[in-house]
Specification:
Strand content: 15-25%
Order of helices and strands: EHEEHEHEHEHEEHEHEHEHEH
Low-confidence stretches: 118-127, 269-277
Helix content: 40-55%
Distance between the termini: 32 Å
Number of helices: 10
CATH architecture of the largest domain: 3-Layer(aba) Sandwich
Radius of gyration: 21 Å
Number of strands: 12
Strand order of the largest sheet: 2-1-3-4-5
CATH topology of the largest domain: Rossmann fold
CATH superfamily of the largest domain: Response regulator
CATH class of the largest domain: Alpha Beta
């Protein structure tokens, strides 16, 4: 999948299509990151919502799938339950369509895509050398990415490879294709927010995730914990706290014999100024 998740449908009613278009147009979780399209627009979707209650829709899907490999089908039904179709090993969304059901379904699609690419990620394991500690910094702020680019090599010794992304979709592409040990993940980003990205990563236990955000309230910390993150840092991160969370990650990853945290040195004012921007 690329940065835009394209969703279409087969067999849903005109009213359901209208509801979907409205949701994709106004929900902040979807605007910019996902789009709803018609099959006759000539653009290949990533996901098709399929009315499992319609034999005609199922037949249309079979013909479409034969010509369009790699499209994810999502069964929708007003009469069946998830238990009744789980033997099909497909993603299921009950109808009527609600915001909660739609967002849950999209999270499942992202998690399934991660699972499908896990084997490839495991075989590639980063663009650097095999023993490199691979770190991904995900933040839409250039100054924060630059700060981490300068700071991480200061505090981590041993083989190190650092990648950068400005949104959740690009972040997951890095993880799918290269494999990442540690992810520093912003919360507020265009498209998919950091909490949902973290859930998708943790669904396959692919990386250590450290939330790196300007949000400081207890509620935000709880949301970070519920999403599965391993640590939570506020921006700009204090050197001591950054060293602590990196040390904890190295322990969880079993890399203490390959990488280590360097002794604290006097802070470089120019670097910290970048982080505060």
């Amino acid at each position: 999948m690329d940065n835009i998740l394209r969703v279409s449908q087969i067999g849903l009613s005109a009213r359901e299509v209208t509801v979907l278009r409205s949701m994709f147009g106004v929900l902040p979780q979807l605007k910019g990151g996902h789009v709803f399209i018609d099959l006759d627009e000539g653009i290949k979707p990533n996901v098709v919502l399929l009315n499992a209650d319609s034999h005609e829709a199922i037949a249309q899907w079979k013909a479409f799938a034969a010509m369009n490999k790699g499209v994810v089908p999502v069964l929708t039904s007003a009469t069946k339950s998830s238990d009744s179709v789980k033997h099909l090993k497909l993603i299921f969304m009950p109808r009527p369509i609600t915001v909660k059901r739609l967002l849950t379904m999209l999270e499942q699609v992202v998690a399934a895509s991660l699972s499908a690419r896990t084997a490839r990620a495991a075989s590639v394991k980063g663009g650097g050398k095999k023993d490199d500690l691979s770190i991904l910094v995900v933040d839409d702020s250039l100054s924060v990415r630059k700060y981490m680019e300068l700071k991480l090599p200061e505090i981590i010794s041993g083989p190190l490879a650092i990648e950068f992304a400005s949104n959740g979709r690009d972040a997951m592409e890095y993880i799918w294709s290269k494999g990442i040990h540690i992810v520093f993940l912003d919360v507020v980003m265009p498209g998919m927010d950091g909490y949902n990205v973290c859930k998708a990563i943790k669904a396959e236990k692919l990386s250590d995730v450290i939330m790196l955000t300007g949000k400081k309230s207890p509620i935000d910390r709880v949301r970070g914990s519920l999403s599965g993150c391993d640590a939570y840092l506020t921006k700009p991160p204090q050197d001591r706290k950054l060293r602590e969370v990196v040390q904890q990650s190295l322990k969880r990853l079993g890399r203490e014999g390959v990488n280590s945290v360097c002794e604290a040195r006097p802070a470089r004012s120019g670097v910290r100024a970048l982080a505060g921007q």
